[in-house]
């Protein structure tokens, strides 16, 4: 179920859980820059999974209806939400097209604004999904499939679909900064080691298009598409990128990347800034960073069998002109 946390009210269940209602769900909830809007997959008025937008003081709005003409019920789902615009007015994700004829896949990336319903963003070849958007929804990022079904990092802008990196492994784009000029996700690094690694990547737009920069991976990450390192979020000026480093199919660590430090384990980054977690707590992923780079969110667990996964919020006051300074910091564990 989607939920919202703030320092005054704590954790609040927002309701409309499709998991509780019919045992099905999907997608990832998102939050606007001001924290007053939430995107999530929710239970529809006719008891199917659909795309929803929660607004403070209003509650939930279903973005389907009105649906695209080819929308339908696929395994009790109309569609799923995977991200939200920075201004909180739009939701991105995918919707289902059960009558689609090969090779045009049954899942298409979409974006929806309020009561206007969702709009098909189109696909390069077959299936696709939108994972994130810039502040106002002009730039949307995610993945589309190639003819072999392999995910390719993709950006939709101005009615144009652009594949950011042609890959032979499952890679995608996850987030774009507020201005819509820098994208992060994952791409193949075939240079740094003997086996290609799905490494965190950045794409920066210039006059000639989107230019790729491999951000790297943590030591010990398996190659040959076994490991997977994904940039999950970034600051507006793209000087901080956060994400998850999957060494293999079982072991994960959160990371923080900056132009000065490169990629480092989130545990080490926060320790260097004076943040103290409970003994034995390991950060598994850093899933978000504020636009100014001061606040981080993610999840982790203590290294004890059966220990529950816990979310966290870390705030690090900025110290201008003091590289590597240790700051007085705040930590909240959920």
For this entry, give a set of tags:
mainly beta; globular; 334 residues; 26 strands; four-stranded antiparallel β-sheet; 2 helices
Question: TL;DR?
Answer:
With 334 residues, the protein is mainly β. The chain has helices at 18-22, 266-272; strands spanning 3-6, 10-13, 30-31, 37-43, 49-55, 59-62, 79-84, 90-96, 107-113, 118-120, 128-133, 139-145, 151-157, 160-163, 173-176, 182-189, 197-206, 209-216, 228-234, 241-246, 252-258, 262-265, 281-289, 295-302, 310-315, 330-333.
Q: Which residue ranges are poorly predicted, with pLDDT under 50 across at least 5 consecutive positions?
A: 319-328
User: Strand sequence of the main sheet, in spatial order?
Assistant: 3-4-5-6
Share of β-strand residues: over 45%
**Strand element count:** 26
- Reading the helices and strands in chain order gives EEHEEEEEEEEEEEEEEEEEEEEHEEEE
Structure classification: mainly beta
Helix content: under 10%
Helix count from the secondary structure assignment? 2
Mean pLDDT: 92
Distance between the termini: 16 Å
Radius of gyration (Å): 19 Å
Q: What's the shape? A: globular
Query: Quick one: biggest sheet?
Result: 4 strands, antiparallel
Could you describe the 3D structure shown?
With 334 residues, the chain is mostly beta strands. The protein contains 2 helices and 26 strands. It has helices spanning 18-22, 266-272; strands spanning 3-6, 10-13, 30-31, 37-43, 49-55, 59-62, 79-84, 90-96, 107-113, 118-120, 128-133, 139-145, 151-157, 160-163, 173-176, 182-189, 197-206, 209-216, 228-234, 241-246, 252-258, 262-265, 281-289, 295-302, 310-315, 330-333. The chain has a 4-stranded antiparallel β-sheet. A 4-stranded antiparallel β-sheet has the order 7-8-9-10, with no helix packed on it. It has a 4-stranded antiparallel β-sheet with strand order 11-12-13-14, with no helix packed on it. The chain is globular, with a radius of gyration of 19 Å. 44% of the residues are buried.
